[in-house]
């Protein structure tokens, strides 16, 4: 009797239950979707950090595409047989890229630059032919990493020096100021500290270039 009654109606009970569950889920999706779309305001998006804004825009595109794919299925069209397939592939590609950026943002910051300060000081020394013997000695002390010599070099900046001509005096003063700044940049004001993403690299070779 039940089978004849079910066949007379033409739709199995399991199908009716599935449709009812689908309608309930669609109402739930509609509720959340309206709340989600309220955040698509351009002013709200502009205030987001770039990565968060990219995530939001991706979610908007994915939600829209998914809903349209469901609509195609309800009309008997498989998404793989529709132009929507290209959009789904494109979204999959962007999802992979976005996940890479998210994973990168969670990683601890890394030093982006490594400076061989010994090679750097040798390069500076050879680039300034007007250095005094004291200045050349200070550069060699920096190359060897001797902090006490660096402090001596910084104290010597306040001493007055006599030169043969005013032009040579100006060149040597500029060289002295350059050396002071180079020492502070290389050592951060102490023997082992460095300013910025610089780390100390020991070098036994006299001809090792700057990395």
Automatic annotation (TrEMBL):
Name of the protein: Nuclear nucleic acid-binding protein C1D
Reported function: Plays a role in the recruitment of the exosome to pre-rRNA to mediate the 3'-5' end processing of the 5.8S rRNA.
Assembly information from the UniProt record: Monomer and homodimer.
Family of the protein in this entry: Belongs to the C1D family.
Major localisation: cytoplasm
InterPro entries named in the record: Exosome-assoc_fac/DNA_repair
Residues passing through the membrane, by range: none
Region of interest: Disordered: 186-211
UniProt KW keywords: Cytoplasm, DNA-binding, Nucleus, Receptor, RNA-binding, rRNA processing
Assigned GO CC terms: cytoplasm; exosome (RNase complex); nucleolus
An MF annotation (GO) of this entry: DNA binding
PANTHER family: NUCLEAR NUCLEIC ACID-BINDING PROTEIN C1D (PTHR15341:SF3), SUN-COR STEROID HORMONE RECEPTOR CO-REPRESSOR (PTHR15341)
Protein source organism: Salix koriyanagi
Any single GO BP term: maturation of 5.8S rRNA
Superkingdom of origin organism: Eukaryota
Location of the protein in the cell: Cytoplasm; Nucleus, Nucleolus; Nucleus
């Amino acid at each position: 009797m039940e089978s004849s009654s079910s066949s007379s109606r033409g739709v199995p009970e399991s199908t009716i239950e599935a449709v009812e569950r689908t309608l309930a889920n669609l109402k739930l999706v509609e509720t959340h979707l309206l709340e989600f779309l309220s955040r698509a305001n351009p002013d709200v998006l502009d205030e987001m950090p770039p990565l968060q804004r990219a995530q939001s825009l991706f979610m908007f595109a994915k939600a829209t595409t998914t809903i349209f794919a469901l609509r195609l299925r309800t009309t008997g069209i498989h998404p793989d047989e529709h132009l929507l397939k290209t959009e789904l592939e494109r979204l999959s590609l962007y999802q992979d890229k976005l996940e890479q950026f998210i994973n990168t943002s969670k990683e601890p910051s890394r030093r982006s630059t490594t400076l061989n300060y010994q090679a750097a000081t040798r390069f500076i020394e050879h680039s300034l032919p007007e250095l005094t013997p004291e200045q050349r000695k200070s550069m060699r002390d920096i190359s060897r990493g001797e902090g006490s010599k660096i402090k001596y070099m910084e104290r010597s900046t306040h001493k007055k020096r006599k030169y043969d001509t005013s032009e040579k005096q100006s060149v040597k003063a500029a060289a002295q100021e350059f050396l002071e700044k180079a020492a502070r940049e290389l050592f951060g004001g102490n023997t082992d500290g460095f300013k910025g993403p610089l780390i100390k690299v020991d070098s036994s070779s006299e001809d090792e270039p700057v990395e």
